[in-house]
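Q: Got a minute? One more chain.
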Amino acid sequence: MHLRWLNRYAGAVLAIQRDLRAAADPVKAAFFPKFFKAGKGEYAEGDQFLGLSVPQVRSIMKQYANLPLDDIHALLQSKWHEERLAGFLLLVLQYERGNDSDRVSVVRFYTEHLDYANNWDLVDASAYKILGRHLLGTKDPAILDRLAASGHLWRERTAVVATYAFIREGDFSHTFRLAEGFLCHPHDLMHKATGWMLREVGKRNKTALCAFLDKNAVCMPRTMLRYAIERFPESLRQHYLLAK
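A: Always. Here it is, folded:
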């Protein structure tokens, strides 16, 4: 029995690895370490790339949507960035297609494996589609505050990006609460993610965003502010930029 399980396990993962490598682009593989900051001393130091885009990986993973979580665990442990991405995209698929019990299992697995979401694209492709949507149903966003207070860059980013699910439903309170906590964050990746979420609020309710900015723009990191006001008319953009 154990041997049959190992054969099935290895076969599924090997098939995915084969398909990813068949679509790999060596030009992208050479460029991605610069784009994703995988050089010495950078936030993704040592990460390795096959050279596939998110849409490419998502397309390939559709045929493996029912892959067991044990197999997904193997992908998340991979040294290859796109294989970890494949694992997170499979979790998104399984959350979207699953029943209530399946979704609880996916969310539990996702939160237990957040350490493998160790770059911004892995977080952004999964956080609001799994954790955010789940919290919409539970009405208990306490995990967002725990992740935001973790002191861990990718968990912090997971928290704020997960609020996109609430934004899409017209609830901006969690985004504003976390954004206030990240006003003094030292990393530009958090400035960008938080500014992005604020911009999404503004696309739906400019008045609400302006009220937040009137209170906080003066102490916001410039990158966060620029992201937040990107879609404002130029005169309004200058109003907030000059407040810095």
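A: Confidence is low (pLDDT under 50) at residues 1-9.
Q: Perfect, thanks.
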